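Shipment paperwork, digital attachment
Item: protein structure file
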Amino acid sequence: MATTQQIIGTWILILLYSAAIIYLVAKGARKIKSMKDYAVGSVTFSPVFVGLSLAAAMTSAATFVINPGLIAVYGISGFLSFGVFFPIASLVSLVVLTKSFRKYGTSVSAVSLASWIGKRYNSTGYSLFIAILSVLLITFIVLILVALAKVLSQALNTDPIYTLAIMVVFVFIYMMFGGANSMVYTNTIQAGIMLVVAVILITAGYEHLKDGIGAFFSKLAAIDPALVKPTNPGSSLFRDFYEIIFVQLIVGAAVVCQPHIMTKSLMLKKESDVNRYLVTSVIVQGLFYLVVIAGLWARLSFPDMTSNGKPLGVDGMIPAFVVKVFSSGWLAVSVGILVIMGLLSAGLSTLEGLIQSVSTTFTEDIAKPLFGSKINGDKSYVLINRVTIIVMGIISFILARNQILSPNLSVAIFAQNGVYAFFSVTFIPIVFGIFVKDSKLKSSLAGSITALVVYFLVYYGFPYLVNNHIADFGFINRYLEGTVRNPAIAASTAIIFSFIVGISVHLMSKKKVSLT
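Attachment content:
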């Protein structure tokens, strides 16, 4: 339970924080005259600001709250997966893909990921296909809302459902008006807070390390020997090195193929800004990824994963850790409140990017091609975008409420299932579109369709056959059994098969052309 000092201090900081956001949103809203202004901004931003905005958008409540909770449960194996291999792959992929993506996107005035793909392959149908699948990203919005509701309800001693409702109303309303113009500024402020909080959380376990790594590992092993092993066969996510290393390298490379990440580079007005943008985002993002180590500190604070006799669960470990560690004395309370604001910032920064990108995709890549002949003027599209955000808010609240009341291990599983399916589909068209210069529509589309089919077969179809003893897939059964399954297995498998199919179709097409 939060102390009175924590509650009062948190309320004061939340009110100040909210006032700052409203001011920046109002300032940015005055410069929005069209959907392009909302999507990529009408202001020339510093590449450092945009880089910070990207790092903040990539670092969601999953990195600061949910993933550390999984590491608290499963130990070093989880840290290797989420703190080492996934970050390496995602940062390398970001650098490799960004320059070419931005260069082409700017040349054809793309404002969304779906429009980039549609214009690259000269296909409105392909663009529409990707845009419709963007609805899967609502699962990520739900993850962030659940994490923030848990953080704030712990800090304020409020009911998480009521906290969730107020938060949804506030965030979705201000995102109806702000767009990219205000988001870069809010994300920059959020990234600044997150940088300070990242350092605090990473160093919060110093006392556990002062006697050496060996003593630290001994403390973890005393709780559960599995916590200090590089693999955790008893987990659902970190059972072996295939799952921890190979799968995470593939998923990490593909995770950047999301609209709120890739389209950030389109906000840069000059090609010369790209390097500073990437250096800023990679350094800051690398630090943010290390925050997951706080899960180990949290497990030492709550060895049996309970607080006041109540089970914390995966998603409650970090909020409870922050409230416990920073609860004694005004200095500690002040630091604790700052940490809470950092967790809030981590969630809001990505949440803003998702709301902006998904609503833009619906307006630009679904509403415009399907109903453009009946819609007149930029103001009409801005209105459609705002209505879309309202609908997204309602759907997100309903799903988030369900995840708070009855999660399947963690909201992370629910969110990853949607997000991983989406970027499995978009990875091949982006990679082929950038690196295979003569790539045609049918090869990339074949890859996308293969990814979609394989993902849901591996995640839902094959497990049904295994769990009902209809089929036996040998050693692969271990990844398919039970009610909690790892979406990264389905995603990595889908990406591998989509690449094989896509490149095969491409090579056969070239061979057919040469024969004719």
